[in-house]
């Protein structure tokens, strides 16, 4: 048979280097990773055989086997699961498909040798490659169930690996680690020690539902002993709470999530009665990098009577809770159940409702009990949760109760709507908000001037989803949610009618200018009026109360929908010298060429002030340069 040599993909090589130089302090976890892969391979084979009985594979004794050879200093992890084909080995083991890992490597690169690097590496699961923390050479022999020929992969973790076809490979995969030389200083990391292997399996992999066997060393003069099963195989979710330690829960979390960090919260739920199930759910402590990508994989696994059925079971939780990981084990489903059936099953729908409520009430509990933990939760998952305000009207109140928003009231403490309402001023009827790209850009927008002046609190909403949920929710405790950039606003408290009268008089006075400007700007603007929003800026642009905001328009367009461009409203500040001057010039002159340019400039200034783009940047620059020149 020929042996072919291949180069590792660049990212894979970087990761291997990290493993070899072992930046990660707890080397023991490599065994957890290999056992976890083996367990997945057994799950996959069992399912494939269930779906296709003609598959030529033996599923009568699925198990994992550990074998230590003290003389040769090797440790082998063997499973008789699904295995991999020749091509699969190249794809799966030679490259890093996981986009999170690629992003992680980029971050690591940025952190460079800085103190951040060591912290970062501990946060990412690197699966198979972690073997190189303990070994200086790894050999993998595998045969895909149903195929006749196997594949041998070997690497010293440097730039290359070799692939070779083999004829006599048993079904499944065996990974042999050629352990690094023993360190006489550090017996703790002696992976040829039976005792050490037992300890690691017990600590990290006890809950694995397949037997993990090891043949104990034969004592002198005795026959080879029978293999021993090292793990209890007990499903954690089926055991009572006081039997299971937090550490055990966390290890299960790491197995299903491929996250190496502790979860933020563990949630247990046992439902009895006609449709019995157990759920063990985890809220991670960090949002994955791909949470907002289209093909993000959910993290809830479905088991039926302790048997793994599927990963990524989308029927169990709504999309806005897709960051929740865990296991749901139902007693009364068929082992053959498909995704399509699950989507339509009445019991599953009830289960989803119950799990959703349980997750939300747990978040509420965190919020009441532990401000720091809640802050972490909201920072990581708030944006996802807010999607629920749009899609899950049944739980809207529960979601609002745990939602918090940046506010002009505080530089760093977000507020709930309840707290906002408590602080509302006498005579204030509405909850005010502004949406936009960043806190800085919206906080300094001209639309905020009158609010700042009168000390009225405004919520500062900067997530794309904010544009949508505010409309969907509409009001909170009878108070309308209103954008400071939409509609006409009247912030005068009672007893300030005089101000109102004065404004009417002013509007009459300016009527000529306003009408003329509207004509001039009609391509972009549907109305020009005097503003009650502005105290400092000369002009701003607002939308009608029911119009789409420009950000929403862009969002729809990005999704490929046709949206007509909505014309907006230009508001002028009659207290500003620029506007006063414009008015005077309008009244005085017959030739309004110059004035028309000024009107156009004023409009563009208002567009810029809210973070927009001039329609014709070159023309804008020319007009401004012209005027500057005249001041010199
Ligand atoms: P991860 O497990 O996070 O996907 P790994 O690098 O550990 O990353 O493994 C990459 C892929 O290689 C796995 O997703 C799986 O498809 C395959 N693989 C690894 N170990 C085994 C095994 N023992 N049996 C079959 N396939 C395996």
Automatic annotation (TrEMBL):
The keyword Cytoplasm applies. Signal peptide: none annotated. Gene3D superfamilies: 3.30.230.80, 3.40.50.11260, Heat shock protein 90, C-terminal domain, Histidine kinase-like ATPase, C-terminal domain. Residues 1-339 are annotated as: A. Residues 555-632 are annotated as: C. Keywords: ATP-binding, Chaperone, Cytoplasm, Nucleotide-binding, Stress response. Pfam families: HATPase_c_3, HSP90. It is found in: Cytoplasm. InterPro entries: HATPase_C_sf (IPR036890), Heat_shock_protein_90_CS (IPR019805), HSP90_C (IPR037196), Hsp90_fam (IPR001404), Hsp90_N (IPR020575), Ribosomal_Su5_D2-typ_SF (IPR020568). The keyword Nucleotide-binding applies. Transmembrane segments: none annotated. Molecular chaperone. Has ATPase activity. Belongs to the heat shock protein 90 family. This is Chaperone protein HtpG. It comes from Streptomyces indiaensis. The lineage of its organism: Bacteria, Bacillati, Actinomycetota, Actinomycetes, Kitasatosporales. The gene is htpG.
